[in-house]
Amino acid sequence: MNKNAHRNAEDSRGRRAMVGGKLSFSASEAYKLLRTNVMFSLAEDEDGSRIFGITSPIKGEGKSTTAINLAYSIAESAKRVLFIEMDMRLPVLHKSLPISKAPGLSDLLVGSALLTDALQKSGIHDDLYVITAGNLPPNPSELLGSERMKALLESFRERFDYILCDLPPITVVSDALMISPMLSGMIVVVRKNYTDMRALDVTMRQLEFTQVKVLGFVMTFDDSGETGAKRYRYGNKYGYKYSYRYDYGYYAAAEKRRREEDRRKNSSKTSPARENPEQKP
Ligand SMILES: Nc1ncnc2c1ncn2[C@@H]1O[C@H](COP(=O)(O)OP(=O)(O)OP(=O)(O)O)[C@@H](O)[C@H]1O
Ligand SMILES: [Mg+2]
Question: What pLDDT is stored for residue 210 in this prediction?
């Protein structure tokens, strides 16, 4: 998904508009392509409405942006869609849509709000409804993995054709893994020149463990210069090459450890000349 398509999308109040009708033609086309792929991938699931999640290995890879635009695109195809913000630690949906921040999912799960209050119209499409993360709870993982969560999702099946869960990153908190077994599928977002391949490996192993069906990968921040739908990448393999950039403490520390280990190994080798001149120290 192309960088500029999102940068150009701001509303008259200068809000960070990243949604649906405000996107460029090429971005909308890319989301349509993603929609088609997702709809086909979920077609085998015959148990009513399709409940799927979007996650990524680390923070800031474009999950929420991809998720809300995909939800909008599905609603455009005359399906009833529910978007659930499941990042109960850093809720942001209310900043992008004309909706209230709370009550939301956490309030529903602890029984302090009614569905009629928590379920909101998205304000950007008649067939797109949203539930925000709600008031910040102390125990998001537990709430997401609870029987009550399961029952809530089941109750949505009758009312919506697609239910899209916007999840936190896999390697940072366990929330996404807790809910994975309740989903018909999962999309994994990777950000070009940013996603750490090892974090992606960890992510895939964790998801495999929960047995959720991985529907495919979306590559974001792709400014390769290709036009239209080609800017967007979707695949079922994760063999892309990534360059590394660590913005988050945990990964920075892990990378430091790995480099120190590599340095130790290299210094124990006898030959002073590097065989590959392009190899970085
Ligand atoms: N495909 C894209 N191209 C360019 N910019 C993007 C793209 N997707 C998202 N962004 C921008 O990147 C930033 C982070 O995006 P977003 O909030 O969707 O990421 P996230 O993975 O949900 O983050 P978090 O892990 O914090 O939930 C936002 O400013 C968003 O506008
Ligand atoms: Mg997000």
Answer: 96
- Of the listed ligands, the closest to the CA of 3 is 1
Structural tokens at position 74: 């599905």
pTM of the entire predicted model: 0.79
Mean pLDDT of 72-92: 96
CA gap 36, 85 in Å, rounded:
22
Peptide bond into 281 cis (omega under 30): no
Which H/E stretch holds residue 234? Answer: strand 233-235
Q: How confident is the model at residue 245 (pLDDT cuts 50, 70, 90)?
A: very low
What is the 8-class DSSP label of residue 273? S
The closest ligand to the CA of 220 turns out to be 1
Measure the CA–CA gap between 52 and 280, rounded to whole angstroms.
40
Task: Name the pLDDT band for 171 (thresholds 50, 70, 90).
Answer: very high
Count, residues in the chain: 281
* CA atoms of 244 and 190, how far apart (whole Å): 12
Question: Average pLDDT in the 111-124 region?
Answer: 97
Residue by residue, DSSP assigns 6-60 as: HHT---TT-----SGGGS-HHHHHHHHHHHHHHHHHHTT--SSSEEEEEE-SSTT
Measured CA to CA, the distance from residue 8 to residue 17 in angstroms comes to: 9
Mean pLDDT of 116-139: 97
CB of 120 within 6 A of ligand 1: the answer is: no
Residue to substitute in 65, 90, 165, 172 for testing ligand 1 pocket (most ligand atoms within 8 angstroms of CB): 65
Judge whether residue 145 has pLDDT over 60: yes
| Cα–Cα dist 90/190, whole Å | 19
What is the rounded CA–CA span in Å between residue 171 and residue 202?
7
